[in-house]
Amino acid sequence: MNGRTWVLGSVIAAAGGLGLATQAQATLIGDMVNFELTDNPSFSVSPNSALVGAGVEAQIIKNDSSTDFDIDVDDASITLTALHDNSFDGSEALRISDMDWVGSPGRIVDFGLNINGVFGLFDSDIAFGDDFVIIVLGGTSWDPGDSAVINLEVDHDPLSNNAVPEPITATLGVMGIGALAGASRRRT
Fold it and tell me: Is residue 27 part of a domain?
């Protein structure tokens, strides 16, 4: 191995040790989130909190005990699926809160809405904050199988990430800096 190749490898190792390596993908899988349905005494959400994993986390249920909607929270999306015909006439809203990202801290900064058959649900019916989403259901009409998917755009600011580098990364960084010092000493 010539000196230049060795120095280049050392610089790459030092960059890894300085934390310039890529972060792991953050997800909601493994997080406990809360559900609340407001302004409609005929419906409720069950359960009120759930651990995000594979499948449906919660359901919107009518007072007659029939399940009307499935709520599925995924790694960075929320899907509502109608199981029966339903209309919301008031100012009903579903709030999903305490959304903490597993793997890297983050905050919701935007979303994309994809609807399949739902009448009356628009981008303007979705509100969000750093760790919550509110879906205004008032004025919507759903047939069985209709769905709405809210894809979340999340900012994972690396400056707010207090992750500790892996030991091997730190070791490689120290070795790289030492190699650079040794290479410059040989030239003098």
Answer: no
